[in-house]
User: Fold this.
Amino acid sequence: MTSRLRLRFGGHSVAGRKALNQDAFAARLPEGEECDSKGAVAVICDGVSGSERAAEASQMAVTVFATDYYATPPNWRVRNASARVLKSLNDWLHLQNVSKAGHTDSALTTFSAAIVKSNTLHCLHVGDSRIYHFRDGRLDQLTRDHVRVEGGREFLARALGADSHLEVDYSTLELAAGDVVLLTTDGVHGFATSQALSTALATAGKDPEACARALIEAALVAGSDDNLSALLVVVDQLPLETIDESHRRLTRLPIPPVLEIGNTIDGYRVLDVVFSGTRSHMYLVRDDSSERRYVLKAPSENFAEDAIYLDGFIREEWVGQRIDHPNVMKTFAPPREKRFMYYLGEHIEGTDLRQWMQDHPQPSLDTVRDIVRQAVAGLRAFQRADMVHQDLKPENIMIDRDGRVKILDFGTVMIAGEDETASPLEKSVPQGSVNYVAPEYLLGAAGSFKSDLFSLAVICYEMITGKLPFDEPAVKRVRIDNYGEFNYIPAIRRRRDLPLWIEGCLRKALNPNPAYRHDALGEFLQDFTRPNPSLEAAIQRQPLIQRNPVRFWQVLCVALIVLHVIRSLVGRG
Assistant:
């Protein structure tokens, strides 16, 4: 990520007019990858009055949650991870409570947690403590009080430790830099008015702790007779959106109408229609403000209700903004807010590799090596970002006028940590690219960089020979039962001048079983560039029937004919 999550916390808690403070709060903002995967936590609890162990319950709840949440696996989503921790915490408190004979010995507490991960605020809530959101002078209460009224008095309807089955309110909100999140116990919000809260929060950015103290003082002046606690989270900086956040935001936008030359959209003037099809439309546009040129791609209205297609479209923009490499097409964050669903990409003047192969039917090995070297460099950028392209084919590789290779089309890219529950086949076997899909996908297995390596090796084989490396029945399938259904056709049989070590390199990279392919993209590139005696020797040691099946059967037929002739002559004698 190009930017990190930056927050400031400020909190204050006092017993007020009571002898014992049964409130508790905690906040944590980790660093590095832990911040990216888990986010920051702010939690506040109010021990239930009348319970002798209320202070113990509230203190335990904030401490355990702020610790155990970060002990959950990094790829767990916030809702899942927090639910697991809260269930364990509630089970323990409830077990302690049912083992006590007296009600006054119970350990009960309210619970409100605000988790900020990437650009999203996740709220979890039980009881009558509260979470507020403040932006541009507007204060919104994000939680509802779980109380019931009996005989003119209010009683908690939910609390941690009160029941074996815990119901937790969960909600999310998109954040912006400058936002303030406020967590309070009822000793504060039960007495300070919304206007008083808003007035104090207007200055929270300067000193959040001083603001928390001011909130408590305002509640005391208003007559608060309970414990008082306030915890503030000031959002100073947000990282780039996650793929889920981009999806939620962009799917709210309408698909733009089909554009013509001269039309404008959000300040971009259409200079040319690159293509206009049933799935999408692409235009060469100029930003009227900066005079900069982009390619603007928009989905077709035919797919307005197609969730899978829209997911792929949004994924293209998201991935292109996160991989910054000269061999990968770049997409750009718009300089101003978008009113329609589209994305801006770099304008590449050139041709795709499919057309290039038609124009160069017998390229030199050095020319092929240069293209492969650049493609490997681009795929390494995906690998460093924990992504797998999954749809590498000649149509998705551009060669610009300077000979630079650009990998594009990120609609099926697998993103580590985001696609744990998705089937690889749902997004990894796009229509028309089956000839280049790695066999492991057809078995229903997840992909890896070795899957991209296989696709690149197919492309490399095709550039050299003009043919595909496997017979048609295998490559036309969308499901296989075992790797043995792929029968490799030696490249050297189709191009006689091919060095044996190149044949060995391709044969290894195109092994249907990924376990037997190269262990690194760089290893494949090295074997394709310099002779590897071990690969050459492995081919020479193969039986003739494996090394050259056609020659084997030719020799066998000749031998049988000779044997038949000999037997005939012997019989006559």
